[in-house]
Amino acid sequence: MNQKFEKLPLRSGVGIVVLNKNNKVFVAKRIDNPKNFWQMPQGGIDNNENYYSAALRELKEETSIISVKLIKEIEGSFTYILPDHLIGIIWKGKYKGQKQKWFVMRFFGNESEININTKHPEFLDWKWIDINDLTKIAVNFKLEVYKQVKSEIEKILN
Question: Reduced to 3 DSSP states, what percent helix, strand and coil does the chain have, rounded to the nearest 5?
Answer without folding.
Answer: 30, 30, 40
